[in-house]
Design a protein that fits this description.
By secondary structure, this protein is of the alpha+beta class. Strands 1, 2, 3, 4, 5, 6, 7, 8, 9, 10, 11 and 12 form a twelve-stranded mixed sheet that branches. It has helices spanning 2-11, 13-47, 61-68, 81-89, 115-121, 191-197, 211-219, 247-256, 267-310, 312-320, 325-366, 376-401, 405-410, and strands at residues 53-57, 93-105, 108-113, 125-128, 136-139, 150-151, 154-155, 163-164, 170-176, 187-190, 239-244, 262-265. β2 and β3 (108-113) form a beta hairpin. The chain contains 13 helices and twelve strands. The two termini are 25 Å apart. The radius of gyration is 32 Å and the shape is elongated. α2 packs parallel to α11, α9 (267-310) runs parallel beside α12 (376-401) and α11 packs antiparallel against α12 (376-401).
């Protein structure tokens, strides 16, 4: 029987290929949506793991997290240096790191921060070392620059018509190990130098010097060095990343800084809200995918019924030569189910490849590593689709079973 099925499908290979491709494309649409949404959810959750609490000025929770954790540039109001000093000296805080952004170089965001934040959020250096003076820079693993490279910060981006700061040139001193987060694409510099080139630092007797002279003087030991002790006179920053000592401390700090002019958020909470939005979008796309699969199923039924009608004489001849009805029905069912199953498996492969391609483009743009992987739910979905395919193949098989030899030969 198998030889007959194989030879029959070879003879009708054009129609077989069309059926397989229809099923594959309909399946791939749903698989791509599912895998891509899951990859985005897992990737962003892992990227936010190292940041327990983010404190900023009152405003948008979502934008605060997107800017500080995912380094998506946006003009944020500044939280006062007094808040930074209070958090740095709070006994409930393991460490607090300021984050200053707004500049870039060759498409990479420049982030002003401290050695404390780098030490506590990275896994160490692949090569080189950390800051030793105010003109040093540390780069993420995905930054395509060698050690010793010069970096001239640009305020904003070239696309936005930004201008280059000429008063300072950073030099790459170290490269961090990969973290799978947007920080892999960041250039990290001392926060004090960011304050200075934006005219935010406080120093005495510097009014008589040019900006460039002041930068070099401070880098050699002045107040723009690597002093990471903050006071109430410290300039403001867009965000402060905080590591509370305990879970209880995290909730107390969040409550304390969610009033007045400050805002404290758990990145995980904000991401949960974003996931809800993503889930709604996924549901809409899933409905579209199901609708597409329904249309394909309807067209396949029409195609297979037409196929059976065109093969009436062949079926009649088989019956006339003594082939039992059950065997003919089984042949018809097996042929159709084999085509449907091949299309479903091919669809899963195409969906996986499409999700990989889309994820690769997103990773290159935002820097978040997103794992595209199958889960148990996908196996369940595949089984359900195969069951539906088996059911759809029954109708043509039933029609072949009920067809008499005389009627078939007369047709």
């Amino acid at each position: 029987m198998m030889r007959f099925i194989v030879s029959d499908m070879k003879r009708l290979w054009v129609g077989s290929v069309v059926v397989v491709l229809l099923v594959a494309m309909a399946t791939a649409l749903g698989v791509t949506v599912t895998l891509q949404e899951r990859a985005l959810r897992l990737g962003t959750a892992r990227a936010a793991d190292k940041f327990d609490l983010v404190v900023g000025a009152a405003g948008s929770e979502t934008q605060l997290v997107l800017s500080s954790v995912f380094l998506q540039a946006a003009p944020l109001p500044l939280v006062s240096g007094e808040t930074l000093a209070a958090l740095s000296s709070d006994p409930r805080v393991a460490w607090a790191g300021p984050v200053g952004f707004g500049d870039s170089f060759a498409g990479y965001p420049i982030v002003g921060t401290t050695t404390s934040l780098i030490d506590n959020t990275s896994s160490g250096f692949v090569e080189g070392k950390g800051f030793s003076d105010a003109e040093d820079a540390v780069i993420g693993s995905a930054v395509d620059l060698p050690l010793g490279a010069e970096i001239k910060p640009m305020h904003g981006t070239a696309e936005e018509g930004g201008h280059t700061h000429t008063e300072i040139v950073y030099h790459v001193q170290g490269r961090l190990k990969p973290t799978g987060t947007p920080w892999d694409r960041a250039v990290l510099v001392p926060i004090s130098s960011v304050w200075h080139i934006h005219g935010m630092d406080h120093h005495d007797g510097a009014e008589d010097h040019s900006q460039e002279e002041t930068v070099h003087a401070h880098a050699e030991g002045g107040d723009m060095g690597l002093n990471e002790t903050f006071t109430s006179d410290t300039p403001g920053v867009p965000a402060i990343l905080v590591k509370p000592k305990t879970i209880a401390d995290a909730y107390k700090l969040r409550q304390q800084y969610r009033q007045g002019n400050t805002l404290a958020v758990f990145p995980g909470e904000v991401l949960t809200k974003l996931y809800a939005t993503l889930g709604d979008a996924r549901d809409v796309l899933s409905v579209v995918a199901i609708g597409a699969q329904g249309l394909v199923a309807a067209s396949l039924i029409l195609v297979t019924l037409t196929h059976i009608m065109q093969r009436r004489k062949q079926i009649g001849a088989l019956r006339a030569f003594g082939a039992p009805r059950s065997s003919i029905s089984l042949i018809v069912w097996t042929e159709l189910f084999a085509l449907f199953a091949t299309g479903i498996l091919l669809g899963f492969a195409i969906g996986f490849f499409a999700a990989k391609v889309i994820t690769g483009m997103l990773v290159a743009k935002i820097g978040v590593v997103m794992p595209v992987e199958f889960a148990k739910a996908d196996a369940t979905q595949a089984v359900m689709l195969l069951v539906v395919a088996a059911g759809l193949a029954i109708l043509p098989a039933w029609l072949a079973y009920g067809q008499s030899p005389a009627e078939a030969l007369r047709g």
